[in-house]
Amino acid sequence: MSLQYFLLLAAALFCIGIYGLITSRNAVRVLMSIELLLNAINLNLMAFSNFLDPTLIKGQVFTIFIITVAAAEAAVGLAIVLAIYRNRDTVDMEQFNLLKW
Amino acid sequence: MNQLLLQSIWLIPCYALLGAIFALPWSPTIIRRTGPRPAGYVNLLMTCLAFTHSLIALQSIWKLPPQHISFNWLSTAGLELTFDIEISRVSVAAMLLVTGLNLLAQIYAVGYMEMDWGWARFYSLLGLFEAGMCALVLCNSLFFSYLILEILTLGTYLLVGLWFSQPLVVTGARDAFLTKRVGDLLLLMGVVALLPLAGTWNYSELAVWAKTAHLDPKIAALLGLLLISGPMGKCAQFPLHLWLDEAMEGPVPSTILRNSVVVATGAWVLIKLQPVLSLSPIVSAALVGIGTVTSVGASLIAIAQIDIKRCLSYSVSAYMGLVFIAVGTQHSEAALLLVLTHAVASALLVMSTGAVVWNSITQDVTQLGGLWSRRPISGLAYIVGTLGLIAFPPLGSFWALLKLASALWVEKPWLVGVVIVVNVFTAFSLTREFSSIFGGKPKQMSERSPEVSWQMALPMIILLAFTLHLPLLLQSLSLLPSWADFNKDVALLLMWSSIFGCTISGVIYLSDFIPKPIRLPVKVLQDLLAYDFYTPKLYKVSIVFSVDMISKLADIVDRLVIDGIVNMIGLASLGGGEGLKYSTSGQTQFYAFTVLLGISLLGATVTWPYWGHQFLSLMF
Question: Is the Cβ pair A101, B596 closer than 8 Å?
Answer without folding.
Answer: no
